[in-house]
Structure formats: structure tokens, C-alpha cells
Amino acid sequence: MAVLCFVVERAAAFSTGITGLTTSSTGCNQCHSGGSTPSVSLVGPTNVSPGSTTEYVLEITTIGSQTFGGLDAAASGGALSVGGSHSTGTQLVSGEITHTAKKAGSGGVVRFSFLWTAPSAPGTFELRAWGNAVNGNGSSSGDRAAFVSLSVNTGPTPTPTATSTATPTPTATPLSHDAVLLPVAPRNIRIPAGATAPVTKKFAVRVRNVDAKGAAAQNFTVSIVGTTCPSGVVFAGPDFDPKTAGVQSTITLNPQQTNPAVVEVSVDRTTITSLKPNLPFRCVVELHADADVMGNTDPSPSNNNVPVELNFFDLGDPAQATPGEAWLARAPPTTMVIPSAQVTKTLKKPVVVANGDTMEAALGVNVDLSACPWLTALVDMVPKTAVTEPNVNVAPGKTKAGAIAWSADGSLVNTPNPKAPLRCVATVAVDGPASPDPEPSNDETKVIIDVLDKNDQ
């Protein structure tokens, strides 16, 4: 059996090619998320002669800003080589075909060609393909992959006929199991004064199978796909069964069933750069959930990833002055439900800023919604007054609470599954008297916004 898997730029580190992903059950989607699922097809003949060399083309339909692609192709029989009508930007590495750089689409399609020399013995071979449409922003966000397969028979050369009809290229119906990773509130980790050994804490993350009732149970896997934390912050898990030796990162869930997995965080205080006991060092770990099924295409991929904010307070830090310091203390995850017969929904949620300076300071809050085109946000740091005010004076060492009015536009939202929200991550940041301030890691927080539209259900 020949196995061909096509994978697009997994991260900036793989922009010049990647191999060895053909056995992955989730393909590119184990890391890439947040984009729209492309249409992917594999074009080429389904009957070839033994020992013959044939061109195949992977076509990836571009969507919105996802205008680039790449590939990883492998074969368990025969041999691959560079060639064909769309071979520009491909290379042979360790017997596999991969890209040399992300490739731009033409006419709404990214095309990669390669040559496959069939084995000399007759047989039936399956060509399998992952195609990923990426936005080329240098990260794994805003991308998404889909799966396609094609069976190819090798045998005696068919007897030519006077007329022939081109064999249509079949496209397999993709598997579609739906996982939702539920939001996790920011976690505060306090390091005791005088601690010399690493400090260990745990938190839970919950995955839900939102397949329709009556569907078969499926295996789901949760994994850590990235972090901004320093090397002294070490993660173990996620583990669905901490009482059993080893890490059990996969679990079987019935439709509508939810189960927690435990993530363990171990921190070496010498790697944390906090400045005083009540001033946190902040970093983020990102988790991903997906059905552990080869070729699965999650119908609502935006809710497969969750960033978890970690705030480290070192109680052994000296109580030193931090002039110009301000930090974003709180902005919780938000779930919004647009009622039937309504187009929009507005929901107010708290936002808390803190002044770490030795003097009173005017602090402001701004919201970056570049990843949330269906949302608007209005900040009011003095909600008891009639005028909306994004700034507020805060005494030294004190906090002030305001509100963010999040508004969702239902005309831009599509959530046919009532258990599978459309998700985006907004960045909420504080503006203080100094830029950058003494501890910039805590100047912003990532806020998960989940939206469900009852009009779609």
C-alpha cells in the first residue's frame, strides 16, 4: 500500500519543509487551528501499469487569508520523485516530497505535483493526503487541514478503445467527529519564600464529545501544543488517569460526555523574573483536543484549542519599588448566546487593572480583536458614570475594576451544533505610565470568547 500524506507549514520552524507526518491521526491539525477547513482533492489516474511513473497533483482550496500551502508526501511502495506540472517549490527529503517554502495559491487553489513510480508487482494502492490551508503569519494560528484518499490499481495495461472517458477523481467523505476543549480560568501559582526545590501545582482541563446523540463513542486526545513559559516551567500531561503509571492522554467518550484531564506544572523559581511578592510573572501554555481518528476533520475547529494563563507569584521576592509598573489583573473567559430572533448579543464582563507603581497613575485598557472579526468591545473603567471612560486613576499598590461590553454579530457567526461554540481569543492589555514597564509579561491577558447563535440551531 502506498501512503501519501500532504502537510502544510506546521510552524515557522517548518517553513522550508517537513517529513514524517504520514502516520499522524490528526495530521497538520495537531498544531494548526483557528482557520477554516479547506476543500482538498487528489488528482490523478486510478489505474496505472506496474513500474510506470505517473503524475499526481494535490489541490488545496484557499479560504480568506489562508492563501498558502505546503506538503509532505510519502509512499510505502514504489518511489517518489520531484516532477510534474506544479513541482515548483518541492524537494525530495529522505524519500519524501516536501515543500521548500510556503507556496501561494493561484486562482483560489494551491497546487503541488509529484511523480510516483509504481511497484513492479500488480496490486491496489491507497493514496492518502492531508492538505492544509495556511495564512503564512509564521505561527500555527488561523490555519486548518482536511483529509482525502484515492485508491489506485496497478495491473496489466488496459486495452485501448476507440473512445475513452476520463476517470473522475473520487473524493472521500471526510470523517467528522467534534471535540470541544472547555475554557480554563487563569491559574495563580505561589512560590513559598525560601523554597529551593521546584514547586508543583496541578490544574484540570475538560474535553467534551459533542457528536450527535446516538453516535458511536470515540477516542479523544488532549495535548500541549505550545507555551510562552521559560524552560524552568515544566509540564506533565494532560493525564486522564493520574492514578495509573504513565500519561494517559487519550480517553473514550460517548456523545455529549465530558471528562477532565490533569496537567501538572513544575516551576524552578530561579527561572522566574518576578520583581516583588504581589507582582506576577505571566506566561501561557496552549492545549489542543481532537478525535483520535485518522483523517478526522473537526466541524468546529476553533474550539479545539485553549490558552491557559499562568501567573507566578514568588513570595520570596524583595518588596522593592517598581516605578511605572501596571498590570492586567483580571479579564475572565466569556460565553455569549445569541437568542433566537436576535441578530446581536452584548454581555458585560469585569476587567481589573493594578498599579504597581509608588505613585498614583492613570491606567487605560485596550482590546485587540484582530482574531475576532464577529466581535466588538467597549471598555468602561468608570462604569458608574454616564460617560464611557477607558482610563482610570489608580492609587499605588491598588486595583480598579471596570467592565468590557462584548458584542457579537450573529450575521458573522455560524454554530449549527448547540454544544460547539465559535471561539476566538481576544488580547486585553493595560496602558500604564511606562512602556515597557518593569514587568511586561503581565501587561496583557488572553481572553477566550465563545459564541453560540440559537438562530443556527
Features:
five-stranded mixed sheet, 0% helix, mainly beta, Immunoglobulin-like, 457 residues, 31 strands, 3 domains, single chain
List the helices and strands and how they pair.
Blueprint: E1 33-34, E2 40-43, E3 47-48, E4 53-61, E5 68-69, E6 72-73, E7 79-81, E8 90-93, E9 96-99, E10 103-104, E11 109-117, E12 123-133, E13 141-154, E14 179-181, E15 187-191, E16 199-209, E17 218-227, E18 233-239, E19 250-253, E20 258-267, E21 281-291, E22 305-314, E23 326-330, E24 334-338, E25 344-355, E26 361-368, E27 375-380, E28 391-394, E29 399-409, E30 422-431, E31 444-453
Describe this structure as you would to a colleague.
The N terminus is likely disordered. The strands form eight sheets. This protein has a five-stranded mixed sheet, with no helix packed on it. Strands 24-31-30-26-28 form a five-stranded mixed sheet, with no helix packed on it. The protein starts with 32 loop residues before the first strand and ends with a strand. It has three domains: 143 residues, Immunoglobulin-like (Sandwich), CATH 2.60.40.10; 146 residues, Immunoglobulin-like, CATH 2.60.40; 137 residues, Immunoglobulin-like, CATH 2.60.40. The chain is built from no helices and 31 strands. Strand 8 and strand 9 form a beta hairpin. The radius of gyration is 26 Å and the shape is elongated. By secondary structure, it is mainly beta.
